[in-house]
Amino acid sequence: MRDEILPGAEDGSVTVDGAPIHYLRAGAGPAVVLIHGASSNLADMSFDLLPRLARNHTVVAFDRPGHGRSGWPTRGGEQLAQQARILRAALSELGIDRAIVVGHSYGGAVALAWALEFPESVAGLLLLGAPSQGWEGGMGLANDLLAHPLTAPYFAWALPMMMSRLSLARLTDELFAPQSTPRGLIDHIDPRRIFAPETLRANAVQLQTLRRQLLAMVPRYPGLRVPVEILHGTEDTLVPFGFHAEPLAAMVPGARLTPLPGVGHMVHYAAPAEVEAALARLARAG
After folding, report:
1. What dihedral angle (degrees, nearest 10) is formed by the CA atoms of 186, 190, 193, 199?
2. Per-residue pLDDT band at 163 (split at 50, 70, 90)
3. 271 within domain boundaries
4. How far apart are CA 120 and CA 140, in angstroms?
5. Residue 155 maps to a domain
6. Distance (Å, rounded) from C-alpha 91 to C-alpha 10?
7. Which residue, 49, 205, 224, is CA-closest to 128?
């Protein structure tokens, strides 16, 4: 973790269901939780968003179960609701029982599950490029191989050996398009952790059932009774705006949708001012 970005931040872990859940906490003020997406870790949030928000909030970023420096709980971490329960328990261990929950991409789906399962602990919900609807098809052959118990040990071992720094940079550029990858980000997120075999397998297992879980959650969205802000790039090709953000905003009573013209999937890098404004609205509402 770069000290010049987060001076004085608390870097630690708490144990939930027999596994360490790694966190980074900084700032003072109303509590905010940051949940990263798939194939990632909390370093994605600490690169810019966490220090930015910590000027006015107590911000806690977690490594989701199986990612970064967090372990795999004994009671399972495959399902969105399981991850929400685990992160809520970890937050409670830190002395925080209610917070604004911010989730990017897959982390937004975890945040949605958190609000559905434990609404009393959610002061507000901020979704950044988050999937919310079930789609046709699967996650692709590579994910299938990493998720299957017979092929996962071999493919998870071979994939990091096939990945060069150049290919990682290309993947990151695709993720950020049409914006550019921030200078220094790849070193900051520590690719060795993302491509660790056990992390690759955990990531694949979690993604494998995402579509089915979202389909099951859709009928519950109209029952959400927490303040909801949705920020989504109109040029997001990974989680398309029209398929996910617009239907969700129509389903959730009082939800506020902010389309971000020309922005791709990495909303928290491309539109930090809009993220801060949405968070301020949630703080006032909650």
Report:
1. -30
2. low
3. yes
4. 37
5. no
6. 14
7. 49
Q: Kind of pairing, strands 99-104 and 58-62?
A: unpaired
Tokens of 132: 């919310």
The H-or-E segment that residue 82 falls in is helix 80-93
Closest by Cα among 3, 2, 23 to 12: 23
- Count the alpha carbons within 13 Å of 49 in the hemisphere toward its beta carbon: 29
| Six token digits for residue 266 | 């990495």
Q: How far apart (Å, rounded) are the C-alpha atoms in residues 88 and 121?
A: 8
Q: Which residue has the tokens 């397998």?
A: 201
Give 154's pLDDT tier (boundaries 50, 70, 90).
low
Q: In terms of residues, how long is the chain?
A: 286
**Per-residue pLDDT tens digits for 23-39:** 999 999 999 999 999 98
In total, how many domains does the chain have?
1
The answer as to whether 193 is a domain residue is no
Closest CA to 70 of 1, 8, 14: 14
pLDDT at 269 over 50: yes
- Please give the torsion angle defined by the CA atoms of residues 62, 159, 47 and 123, in that order, rounded to the nearest 10 degrees: -30
Whether omega for the bond prior to residue 178 falls within 30 degrees of 0, making it cis, is yes
